Amino acid sequence: MKKHKKLKLQAGLPPGTLQYVGEAKNSSVRITVIDYDPENIEERHIEDIREVYDYKEKSSVTWINIDGIHDVQIVKTLGMYYNLHPLLQEDIVDTEQRPKVDFFEDNIFVVLHMLSYHPERRRVVEEQVSLVLGENYLLSFQEDKEGDVFGSIRQRLHSKTRGKIRNTGSAYLFYLLIDTIVDNYFVVLDSVAENLENLEEEIIRQNAPRDPTRDLYNMKRQLTMVRKAVRPMRDIVTQLIREEAKFLESDNFYLRDLYDHVVQVSDNTDSYIDVVSNLLDLYLSIIGHKTNDVMKVLTIFSTIFMPLTFIVGVYGMNFEHMPELHAQNGYFVVWGVMIVISILTYIFFKRKKWL
Protein backbone atom coordinates (compact mmCIF):
# COMPACT_ATOMS: atom_id res chain seq x y z
CA MET A 1 0.00 0.00 0.00
CA LYS A 2 1.30 3.42 -0.89
CA LYS A 3 2.02 5.52 2.16
CA HIS A 4 1.31 9.24 2.10
CA LYS A 5 3.38 11.83 3.86
CA LYS A 6 1.43 13.33 6.72
CA LEU A 7 1.79 16.93 7.83
CA LYS A 8 1.77 17.33 11.60
CA LEU A 9 0.79 20.31 13.70
CA GLN A 10 3.77 22.35 14.85
CA ALA A 11 3.88 22.92 18.60
CA GLY A 12 3.98 26.40 20.07
CA LEU A 13 1.80 28.17 17.50
CA PRO A 14 -0.77 30.63 18.89
CA PRO A 15 -4.43 29.49 18.99
CA GLY A 16 -6.28 30.15 15.75
CA THR A 17 -3.22 29.72 13.53
CA LEU A 18 -4.25 28.07 10.27
CA GLN A 19 -1.97 25.14 9.55
CA TYR A 20 -3.10 22.15 7.53
CA VAL A 21 -2.74 18.82 9.34
CA GLY A 22 -3.20 15.70 7.22
CA GLU A 23 -1.91 13.91 4.15
CA ALA A 24 0.25 16.09 1.94
CA LYS A 25 -1.64 16.98 -1.25
CA ASN A 26 -0.75 18.83 -4.44
CA SER A 27 -4.15 18.61 -6.13
CA SER A 28 -6.31 21.64 -6.74
CA VAL A 29 -9.27 22.44 -4.52
CA ARG A 30 -12.74 21.95 -6.00
CA ILE A 31 -15.34 24.53 -4.96
CA THR A 32 -19.02 23.87 -5.68
CA VAL A 33 -21.85 26.30 -4.99
CA ILE A 34 -25.53 25.32 -4.97
CA ASP A 35 -27.87 28.25 -4.48
CA TYR A 36 -31.61 27.57 -4.34
CA ASP A 37 -35.04 28.70 -3.27
CA PRO A 38 -38.51 27.18 -3.92
CA GLU A 39 -38.52 28.41 -7.52
CA ASN A 40 -34.93 28.40 -8.75
CA ILE A 41 -31.69 26.51 -8.30
CA GLU A 42 -28.18 27.19 -9.54
CA GLU A 43 -25.17 24.89 -9.29
CA ARG A 44 -21.74 25.93 -10.45
CA HIS A 45 -18.08 25.19 -9.92
CA ILE A 46 -15.95 28.21 -9.24
CA GLU A 47 -12.22 28.71 -9.59
CA ASP A 48 -11.81 31.80 -7.42
CA ILE A 49 -13.09 31.60 -3.84
CA ARG A 50 -13.84 35.32 -3.92
CA GLU A 51 -16.78 34.59 -6.22
CA VAL A 52 -18.76 33.18 -3.28
CA TYR A 53 -19.12 36.70 -1.91
CA ASP A 54 -21.80 37.32 -4.54
CA TYR A 55 -24.07 34.85 -2.70
CA LYS A 56 -23.57 36.23 0.79
CA GLU A 57 -26.36 38.79 0.75
CA LYS A 58 -28.91 36.63 -1.07
CA SER A 59 -32.11 35.53 0.68
CA SER A 60 -31.90 32.09 -0.95
CA VAL A 61 -30.10 29.12 0.64
CA THR A 62 -26.47 28.75 -0.39
CA TRP A 63 -24.55 25.51 0.01
CA ILE A 64 -20.82 25.90 -0.55
CA ASN A 65 -18.87 22.64 -0.67
CA ILE A 66 -15.07 22.61 -0.51
CA ASP A 67 -13.33 19.43 -1.69
CA GLY A 68 -9.79 19.76 -0.35
CA ILE A 69 -8.84 21.63 2.81
CA HIS A 70 -5.08 21.68 2.28
CA ASP A 71 -5.30 25.21 0.85
CA VAL A 72 -5.68 27.20 4.06
CA GLN A 73 -6.04 30.47 2.17
CA ILE A 74 -9.43 29.35 0.85
CA VAL A 75 -10.60 28.53 4.37
CA LYS A 76 -9.27 31.85 5.59
CA THR A 77 -11.14 33.75 2.86
CA LEU A 78 -14.41 31.98 3.64
CA GLY A 79 -13.81 32.67 7.31
CA MET A 80 -13.52 36.36 6.57
CA TYR A 81 -16.67 36.43 4.39
CA TYR A 82 -18.84 34.48 6.84
CA ASN A 83 -17.33 35.72 10.10
CA LEU A 84 -15.99 32.31 11.17
CA HIS A 85 -14.14 32.17 14.47
CA PRO A 86 -10.36 31.62 14.10
CA LEU A 87 -10.53 28.48 16.27
CA LEU A 88 -13.27 27.14 14.01
CA GLN A 89 -11.08 27.72 10.96
CA GLU A 90 -8.17 26.02 12.71
CA ASP A 91 -10.30 22.93 13.37
CA ILE A 92 -11.43 22.76 9.74
CA VAL A 93 -7.88 22.32 8.40
CA ASP A 94 -6.95 19.78 11.09
CA THR A 95 -8.00 16.34 9.79
CA GLU A 96 -7.26 14.67 13.12
CA GLN A 97 -10.17 16.29 14.93
CA ARG A 98 -12.52 14.22 17.04
CA PRO A 99 -16.20 14.50 16.01
CA LYS A 100 -17.70 17.41 17.92
CA VAL A 101 -20.10 20.36 17.80
CA ASP A 102 -19.41 23.99 18.73
CA PHE A 103 -21.94 26.79 18.99
CA PHE A 104 -21.01 30.33 18.01
CA GLU A 105 -23.04 33.51 17.87
CA ASP A 106 -23.54 33.44 14.10
CA ASN A 107 -23.19 29.76 13.26
CA ILE A 108 -22.96 26.15 14.39
CA PHE A 109 -19.86 24.10 13.66
CA VAL A 110 -19.85 20.29 13.44
CA VAL A 111 -16.97 17.90 12.73
CA LEU A 112 -17.94 14.43 11.50
CA HIS A 113 -16.19 11.38 10.11
CA MET A 114 -17.60 10.17 6.80
CA LEU A 115 -16.99 6.47 6.16
CA SER A 116 -16.96 4.45 2.94
CA TYR A 117 -16.23 0.81 2.22
CA HIS A 118 -13.85 -0.32 -0.52
CA PRO A 119 -14.85 -3.91 -1.43
CA GLU A 120 -11.76 -4.60 -3.54
CA ARG A 121 -9.51 -3.86 -0.57
CA ARG A 122 -12.02 -4.98 2.05
CA ARG A 123 -11.38 -1.97 4.20
CA VAL A 124 -13.18 1.04 5.62
CA VAL A 125 -11.91 4.46 4.54
CA GLU A 126 -12.41 7.46 6.79
CA GLU A 127 -12.66 11.10 5.78
CA GLN A 128 -13.27 14.14 7.94
CA VAL A 129 -16.18 16.40 7.04
CA SER A 130 -16.77 19.79 8.67
CA LEU A 131 -20.10 21.60 8.47
CA VAL A 132 -20.80 25.24 9.28
CA LEU A 133 -24.48 26.19 9.54
CA GLY A 134 -25.52 29.80 9.42
CA GLU A 135 -28.58 31.78 8.45
CA ASN A 136 -29.35 30.91 4.82
CA TYR A 137 -26.00 29.25 4.22
CA LEU A 138 -24.21 25.99 4.80
CA LEU A 139 -20.48 25.40 4.34
CA SER A 140 -19.12 21.88 4.00
CA PHE A 141 -15.43 21.01 3.97
CA GLN A 142 -14.10 17.64 2.82
CA GLU A 143 -10.55 16.31 2.69
CA ASP A 144 -10.43 15.55 -1.04
CA LYS A 145 -12.55 15.22 -4.16
CA GLU A 146 -12.73 11.45 -4.59
CA GLY A 147 -16.45 11.56 -3.89
CA ASP A 148 -18.88 11.74 -1.01
CA VAL A 149 -22.24 10.34 0.08
CA PHE A 150 -24.24 13.47 -0.72
CA GLY A 151 -25.23 12.55 -4.28
CA SER A 152 -28.81 11.75 -3.30
CA ILE A 153 -29.19 15.17 -1.67
CA ARG A 154 -27.98 16.92 -4.82
CA GLN A 155 -30.48 14.91 -6.85
CA ARG A 156 -33.31 15.92 -4.52
CA LEU A 157 -32.29 19.55 -4.82
CA HIS A 158 -32.50 19.34 -8.62
CA SER A 159 -35.70 17.30 -8.62
CA LYS A 160 -38.58 18.81 -10.57
CA THR A 161 -40.99 17.96 -7.75
CA ARG A 162 -39.41 20.67 -5.59
CA GLY A 163 -39.85 18.75 -2.37
CA LYS A 164 -39.37 19.85 1.20
CA ILE A 165 -35.65 20.40 0.79
CA ARG A 166 -36.31 23.27 -1.64
CA ASN A 167 -38.96 24.83 0.58
CA THR A 168 -37.02 24.88 3.85
CA GLY A 169 -33.96 26.66 5.09
CA SER A 170 -30.33 25.77 5.56
CA ALA A 171 -31.05 23.97 8.87
CA TYR A 172 -32.93 21.20 7.06
CA LEU A 173 -30.06 20.80 4.59
CA PHE A 174 -27.70 20.67 7.57
CA TYR A 175 -29.78 17.87 9.08
CA LEU A 176 -29.90 15.97 5.77
CA LEU A 177 -26.12 16.00 5.38
CA ILE A 178 -25.60 14.62 8.89
CA ASP A 179 -28.40 12.09 8.43
CA THR A 180 -26.88 10.88 5.14
CA ILE A 181 -23.49 10.40 6.78
CA VAL A 182 -25.10 8.41 9.60
CA ASP A 183 -27.20 6.34 7.18
CA ASN A 184 -24.04 5.49 5.26
CA TYR A 185 -22.66 4.00 8.47
CA PHE A 186 -25.35 1.32 8.05
CA VAL A 187 -24.10 0.64 4.51
CA VAL A 188 -20.53 0.28 5.75
CA LEU A 189 -21.63 -1.98 8.61
CA ASP A 190 -23.63 -4.17 6.22
CA SER A 191 -20.57 -4.63 4.00
CA VAL A 192 -18.35 -5.56 6.93
CA ALA A 193 -21.08 -7.81 8.36
CA GLU A 194 -21.38 -9.68 5.05
CA ASN A 195 -17.66 -10.50 5.11
CA LEU A 196 -17.97 -11.40 8.77
CA GLU A 197 -20.81 -13.84 8.09
CA ASN A 198 -18.83 -15.54 5.31
CA LEU A 199 -15.84 -15.89 7.59
CA GLU A 200 -18.04 -17.17 10.40
CA GLU A 201 -19.43 -19.88 8.12
CA GLU A 202 -15.91 -20.94 7.08
CA ILE A 203 -14.78 -21.15 10.69
CA ILE A 204 -17.83 -23.13 11.84
CA ARG A 205 -17.51 -25.53 8.91
CA GLN A 206 -13.76 -25.67 9.58
CA ASN A 207 -12.93 -25.19 5.91
CA ALA A 208 -11.23 -21.80 6.01
CA PRO A 209 -8.70 -21.65 3.13
CA ARG A 210 -6.19 -19.90 5.38
CA ASP A 211 -5.70 -18.77 8.93
CA PRO A 212 -8.59 -16.30 9.53
CA THR A 213 -6.92 -14.64 12.51
CA ARG A 214 -5.56 -11.76 10.43
CA ASP A 215 -8.96 -11.21 8.77
CA LEU A 216 -10.68 -11.19 12.16
CA TYR A 217 -8.24 -8.65 13.58
CA ASN A 218 -8.64 -6.54 10.43
CA MET A 219 -12.44 -6.57 10.81
CA LYS A 220 -12.15 -5.68 14.47
CA ARG A 221 -9.91 -2.75 13.57
CA GLN A 222 -12.42 -1.54 10.95
CA LEU A 223 -15.34 -1.88 13.34
CA THR A 224 -13.37 0.02 15.96
CA MET A 225 -12.93 2.79 13.38
CA VAL A 226 -16.71 2.86 12.88
CA ARG A 227 -17.30 2.96 16.64
CA LYS A 228 -14.77 5.78 16.98
CA ALA A 229 -16.74 7.77 14.40
CA VAL A 230 -20.19 6.93 15.79
CA ARG A 231 -19.84 7.21 19.56
CA PRO A 232 -19.25 10.98 19.68
CA MET A 233 -22.32 11.41 17.46
CA ARG A 234 -24.57 10.72 20.45
CA ASP A 235 -23.20 13.74 22.26
CA ILE A 236 -23.28 15.84 19.09
CA VAL A 237 -26.94 15.17 18.33
CA THR A 238 -27.90 15.48 22.01
CA GLN A 239 -26.28 18.93 22.16
CA LEU A 240 -28.00 19.96 18.94
CA ILE A 241 -31.35 18.93 20.45
CA ARG A 242 -30.79 20.61 23.82
CA GLU A 243 -29.12 23.78 22.59
CA GLU A 244 -31.65 26.46 21.79
CA ALA A 245 -29.93 27.49 18.59
CA LYS A 246 -31.91 29.91 16.48
CA PHE A 247 -31.15 27.91 13.33
CA LEU A 248 -32.52 24.59 14.64
CA GLU A 249 -35.73 25.40 16.51
CA SER A 250 -38.02 23.81 13.91
CA ASP A 251 -35.88 20.73 13.31
CA ASN A 252 -35.87 19.03 16.71
CA PHE A 253 -38.11 16.20 15.51
CA TYR A 254 -35.67 15.35 12.75
CA LEU A 255 -32.76 15.50 15.18
CA ARG A 256 -34.52 13.10 17.55
CA ASP A 257 -34.98 10.67 14.67
CA LEU A 258 -31.31 11.14 13.84
CA TYR A 259 -30.41 10.33 17.43
CA ASP A 260 -32.31 7.03 17.15
CA HIS A 261 -30.28 6.16 14.06
CA VAL A 262 -27.03 6.97 15.83
CA VAL A 263 -27.96 4.76 18.78
CA GLN A 264 -28.86 1.92 16.42
CA VAL A 265 -25.56 2.19 14.53
CA SER A 266 -23.65 2.31 17.80
CA ASP A 267 -25.43 -0.77 19.15
CA ASN A 268 -24.92 -2.68 15.90
CA THR A 269 -21.23 -1.81 15.88
CA ASP A 270 -20.77 -3.05 19.44
CA SER A 271 -22.63 -6.25 18.56
CA TYR A 272 -20.40 -6.92 15.55
CA ILE A 273 -17.28 -6.29 17.62
CA ASP A 274 -18.54 -8.87 20.11
CA VAL A 275 -19.15 -11.30 17.23
CA VAL A 276 -15.58 -10.83 16.01
CA SER A 277 -14.22 -11.46 19.51
CA ASN A 278 -16.40 -14.56 19.87
CA LEU A 279 -15.32 -15.86 16.46
CA LEU A 280 -11.70 -15.37 17.39
CA ASP A 281 -12.25 -17.31 20.62
CA LEU A 282 -14.13 -19.99 18.67
CA TYR A 283 -11.33 -20.35 16.12
CA LEU A 284 -8.68 -20.58 18.82
CA SER A 285 -10.84 -23.14 20.62
CA ILE A 286 -11.15 -25.20 17.41
CA ILE A 287 -7.40 -25.02 16.87
CA GLY A 288 -6.85 -26.08 20.48
CA HIS A 289 -9.31 -28.95 20.05
CA LYS A 290 -7.53 -30.12 16.90
CA THR A 291 -4.19 -29.92 18.68
CA ASN A 292 -5.60 -31.97 21.55
CA ASP A 293 -6.83 -34.60 19.07
CA VAL A 294 -3.37 -34.83 17.53
CA MET A 295 -1.75 -35.05 20.95
CA LYS A 296 -4.24 -37.76 21.97
CA VAL A 297 -3.37 -39.88 18.93
CA LEU A 298 0.34 -39.41 19.54
CA THR A 299 -0.11 -40.32 23.21
CA ILE A 300 -2.05 -43.48 22.31
CA PHE A 301 0.64 -44.58 19.88
CA SER A 302 3.31 -43.81 22.46
CA THR A 303 1.42 -45.86 25.07
CA ILE A 304 1.06 -48.80 22.68
CA PHE A 305 4.72 -48.78 21.74
CA MET A 306 6.02 -48.16 25.25
CA PRO A 307 5.87 -51.84 26.42
CA LEU A 308 7.08 -52.97 23.00
CA THR A 309 10.05 -50.66 23.29
CA PHE A 310 10.73 -52.02 26.76
CA ILE A 311 10.68 -55.65 25.52
CA VAL A 312 12.87 -54.88 22.53
CA GLY A 313 15.22 -52.93 24.76
CA VAL A 314 15.60 -55.78 27.22
CA TYR A 315 16.42 -58.34 24.59
CA GLY A 316 18.57 -55.93 22.73
CA MET A 317 21.03 -55.65 25.61
CA ASN A 318 24.52 -56.78 24.73
CA PHE A 319 24.95 -59.61 27.29
CA GLU A 320 26.29 -63.03 26.36
CA HIS A 321 24.36 -65.11 28.91
CA MET A 322 20.60 -64.45 28.64
CA PRO A 323 18.13 -67.37 29.26
CA GLU A 324 15.91 -66.73 26.22
CA LEU A 325 18.64 -65.56 23.90
CA HIS A 326 19.33 -69.00 22.46
CA ALA A 327 15.74 -70.32 22.62
CA GLN A 328 14.75 -72.03 19.40
CA ASN A 329 11.50 -70.04 18.95
CA GLY A 330 12.44 -67.02 21.08
CA TYR A 331 12.15 -64.54 18.21
CA PHE A 332 8.59 -65.61 17.36
CA VAL A 333 7.59 -65.71 21.04
CA VAL A 334 8.72 -62.11 21.50
CA TRP A 335 6.78 -61.07 18.43
CA GLY A 336 3.70 -62.87 19.71
CA VAL A 337 3.94 -61.20 23.12
CA MET A 338 4.30 -57.76 21.52
CA ILE A 339 1.32 -58.32 19.23
CA VAL A 340 -0.85 -59.52 22.13
CA ILE A 341 0.14 -56.50 24.24
CA SER A 342 -0.66 -54.15 21.34
CA ILE A 343 -4.08 -55.74 20.80
CA LEU A 344 -4.93 -55.66 24.51
CA THR A 345 -3.88 -52.02 24.76
CA TYR A 346 -5.98 -51.13 21.71
CA ILE A 347 -9.02 -52.93 23.17
CA PHE A 348 -8.52 -51.11 26.49
CA PHE A 349 -8.46 -47.70 24.76
CA LYS A 350 -11.47 -48.63 22.66
CA ARG A 351 -13.54 -49.60 25.70
CA LYS A 352 -12.58 -46.37 27.41
CA LYS A 353 -13.73 -44.55 24.24
CA TRP A 354 -10.38 -42.86 23.88
CA LEU A 355 -10.31 -43.95 20.24
Give the class from helix and strand content and strand pairing.
Answer: alpha+beta
How would a crystallographer describe the biggest sheet?
Answer: 7 strands, mixed
Strand order of the largest sheet: 4-3-5-9-8-7-6
Strand-and-helix sequence, N→C?
A: EEEEEHHEEEEHHHHHH
Helix content: 40-55%
SSE diagram, text form:
Blueprint: E1 6-7, E2 22-23, E3 30-36, E4 41-46, E5 61-67, H1 72-81, H2 86-92, E6 100-103, E7 108-118, E8 123-134, E9 137-142, H3 151-158, H4 164-167, H5 170-205, H6 213-242, H7 252-315, H8 330-351
Parallel strand pairs: 5-9
Antiparallel strand pairs: 1-2, 3-4, 3-5, 6-7, 7-8, 8-9
Helix pairs in contact: 5-6, 5-7, 6-7, 7-8
Report on the structure:
With 355 residues, the protein is an alpha+beta fold. It folds into two domains: 6-286, CorA soluble domain-like (Beta Polymerase, domain 2), CATH 3.30.460; 293-351, Methane Monooxygenase Hydroxylase, Chain G, domain 1, CATH 1.20.58. The protein contains eight helices and nine strands. It has helices at 72-81, 86-92, 151-158, 164-167, 170-205, 213-242, 252-315, 330-351, and strands spanning 6-7, 22-23, 30-36, 41-46, 61-67, 100-103, 108-118, 123-134, 137-142. A seven-stranded mixed sheet has the order 4-3-5-9-8-7-6, sandwiched between helices. The protein has a two-stranded antiparallel sheet with strand order 1-2. Strand 3 (30-36) and strand 4 form a beta hairpin. Helix 7 (252-315) packs antiparallel against helix 8 (330-351). The longest helix has 64 residues, at 252-315. The mean pLDDT is 85.
